[in-house]
Amino acid sequence: MRKSAAIIKPGERYLILLKPYSSIASLPPIPSSLDSEPADLSAQLLSILSRPNWQKHPSLIKLLPYLTPSHVSSLFAFNLDPQTALNFFNWIAHRPGFKHNVHSYSSMLNVLILARSLRLAEKIRISMINACRSIEDVLFVLQVFREMNAADGQLKFEPTLRCYNTILMILSKFLLIDEMKSVYLELLNNNISPNIYTFNAMVNGYCKIGNVIEAELYVSKIVQAGLHPDTFTYTSLILGHCRNKDVGNAYKMFLIMPQKGCQRNEVSYTNLIHGLCEAGRINEALKLFIDMTQDNCCPTVRTYTVLIHALCGSGRKVEALNLFNEMKEKGCEPNVHTYTVLIDCLCKENKMDEARKLLSEMLEKGLIPTVVTYNALIDGCCKEEMIDDAFEILDLMESNNCGPNTRTYNELICGLCKKRKVHKAMALLNKMLERKLSPSLITYNSLIHGQCKVNDLESAYRLVSLMNENGLVPDEWTYSVFIDTLCKEGRVEEAGTLFDSIKAKGVKANEVIYTALINGYCKVGKIDVGHSLLERMLNDACSPNSCTYNVLIEGLCKKKKMKEASSLVAKMLTMGVKPTVVTYTILVGEMLKDGAFDHALEVFNHMVSIGCQPDVCTYTALLHAYFSQGMFEEVDYVIAKMNEERILPDLVMYAVLIGGYARLGLTHRAFDFLKCMVDARYTPSLCTLSILIKNLSHENQMKQTRSEIGSDSVDIADVWKTLEYENVLKLFEKMVEHGCTIDASIYGALISGFCQAGRLEEAQGLVHHMKERGMSPSEDIYNSLLDCCCKLGVYTEAVRLVDAMVESGLLPLLESYKLLVCGLFIEGSNEKAKAVFCGLLSCGYNYDEVAWKVLIDGLLKRDLVDKCSELLDIMEEKGCQPNLLTYSMLMEGLERTENN
After folding, report:
1. How confident is the model at residue 53, as a pLDDT?
2. For the chain: N or C, fewer Cβ within 10 A?
């Protein structure tokens, strides 16, 4: 963006000291052509305006694209003839793309006051007040307003009643209620008698914040002044009662209006409709909407938007879309807010294509989406794990000059962390700080969750330190992530210790923390501890939810304590917690594993009879059991039942179906379901592909024991250690034969299998194979290859891969960089290691994370103290300094390692 050469900046006092400009000849010459913003633009402008017929001067047209309100303010600081100043002020106001702001109005106002053109000055003053676009603007105008009134002599310009009323309404609009009250008292002190507009401004201001008691005091003043409350008064009172969630009294005001001779208008109706919607009385709001015609009122865009928003929020999307189409048919054009409400609703229902269509429709109509619109789309994409699409929306947002806010980055960070792209999420933290946006608790909690998801608890704890340094305190959600992660890693005692410590930190454990810890103890077989935690939870007035009971029920089932598990289900009901489909699925699944098919079906039928519909997980448990017993008829029945209930398979069910048929030698059926899986946009897991390949290679095909049958029983490492490359090609042939699309994600899974087994040559063979078919390796594929190279010590190839990735705009994982840099230093390739590190610093990684993972966890843990110091020097030389806290960690680490 270009920078304006403003003399008057926002927030400066409005009074400008006029400076005599003794000679036009001293002004800078006007350039014949302008390729960039000219210097001393205001002075050049003065030179042009000092000539006759300045409107037709060719240089003025060339300067026009560079002119901003700041330049106009600067121009009026010169001793310019007032009439010329006013003519130019009005002329430029009509130029396309130019709009005066409160500062340029203030400068013009000053010129007119000094010239004592007070009638014109009053018009400019009213326009200046109405030009307020932010609280900062309002406070600036208020300062100007007061200084004009307090000034002496030539600079004094007393406010009129109209001026007072206008500023009262603008203060009401921006909810600056204390200032509004002060201005009202100033009006009285100036011996100006308020009129109905004055009182209405006060009533409206207090009603906007729900202070109806104060508003009614001004209604009484209306009566005391011999005036009558009008439509605006009553409409404000309706708003005030609705803001207080008192729809009953709002309705009374609405009904009184005709009796008081006040015509109800569109705003009266819309305010009450909004209040009813906020109270969840949507059907009454819709009836009132239909009744608008009785008062000859037509619904406005706001009326429609309020109803559409309420319908979307209550899950009545079809009605919302019908209303949206109706408003367009009736010639009421939806605005940005209307579109945003619908886009948000569609995104929450994962209807991303429909949401994108609405965005396109908006743009075609010339409507400018707000940050809220874009955030809804970005959030929707991230929740659907469509990260590339989310970044496309971000690019579109920025290209339309809409700056992302903290929420935008939080949604992207959360989406990246879900996809385990923590290094990219941390890089976004950098961008937030560059944009002067303050990371919130949500930002840090998302990043902590991301680090935990990639099993880097140490970096997660470091983020807590950064959070504390930025004045943020970990909350219950922060601790729930740590406790859950520790439990998943089997470090239950550590999780218990952390749990015991949070109370002293002023954090009250919520149901998520309790459930995570109970689950952790149940997973290691300590059911009694889980039960005691449940009792403690109840004593702490923290209500267990179905998830809490479910983890205990699952723990009991795994211990074969089915009777106790059933008793706990009964206890749930006495505690007012309804068993869910998950509860019954746990019981059914465990009974099936024990071969108690009849008992399992009893429970299954019971859940259906009480209206708890089985979901894809329930049916998956049934399929898994039926496959294990070779019960083909039952498998077919379950599939038919799912089709009848319109329950679609998920990733796990597809894996069970493919694995079940493959292990029983029904290869054709397995590949049929693989095609369905790919068509449904699910990527087969490495495990699923391993089962198919093992089946194709005829290794122990019919020697499986029943206990091995299932999607997760294959020893993946064993398969890929011995797998012949030709069998992967056979898999491709079979997939093509069954009409399966072989995309980059399939290649990625297979390449990952070879890389995990350390078979780099075969992995590279598959990369060559995919390139021959016009596909480029993804970031995940490159990272698999890079990780394999580093672990095998093939550092030259690893460096080549890093260069290829960076050239393609892809980011290697910092874990791989750590292995590569450390490996190069250990083998003595010091310059190569430094070169790789220098390249890393230019890729946009978060410098703290670079220091944590490469310097501390990499070099210092390998006792490469000197190398760590050298790389830290490089970071400092390049201006890539980490946070002071990280720097302190490095210093402590260097000192400790040297001492050791």
Report:
1. 85
2. N
Residue 235 in this model has a pLDDT that exceeds 90: yes
Phi, psi of 25 (to 5 degrees): -65, -25
**Across residues 709-716, what is the average pLDDT?**
53
Q: Average pLDDT, stretch 517-530?
A: 94
Nearest to 779 by CA among 761, 757, 802: 802
Q: How confident is the model at residue 698 (pLDDT cuts 50, 70, 90)?
A: low
Distance between CA atoms of 854 and 861, rounded to whole angstroms? 10
Asked whether the predicted pLDDT for residue 1 surpasses 60, the reply is no
Distance CA 692, CA 670 (A): 8
Tell me which residue of 302, 312, 357, 360 sits closest to 335, measured CA to CA.
Answer: 302
Contact 549, 520 (CB under 8 A): no
Query: DSSP secondary structure string, 205-231?
Result: HHHHTT-HHHHHHHHHHHHHTT----H
- How many helices (H) does the chain have, and how many strands (E)? 49, 0
Q: What is the pLDDT of residue 395?
A: 95
pTM of the model: 0.82
* Class of residue 497 by CB neighbours under 10 A (exposed 0-12, middle 13-18, buried 19+): exposed
How many residues are given for the chain? 900
pLDDT above 90: residue 43:
no
Are 785 and 804 a contacting pair, CB within 8 Å?
no
Q: Of 443, 452, 517, 451, give the one whose Cα is nearest residue 475.
A: 443
**Cα angle, residue 68 at apex, residues 66 and 72 outer, rounded to 5°:** 115
Q: Which residue has the higher pLDDT, 263 or 11?
A: 263
Mean pLDDT of 97-114: 92
Cα 215 to Cα 120, 189, 206: the distances in Å are 34, 21, 5
Q: Which of 201, 235, 231 is nearest to 218 (CA)?
A: 201
**Among 213, 188, 207, 208, CA closest to 198:** 188
- C-alpha span between 368 and 138 (Å, rounded): 24
Closest to 363 (Cα-Cα) out of 392, 388, 390, 396: 396
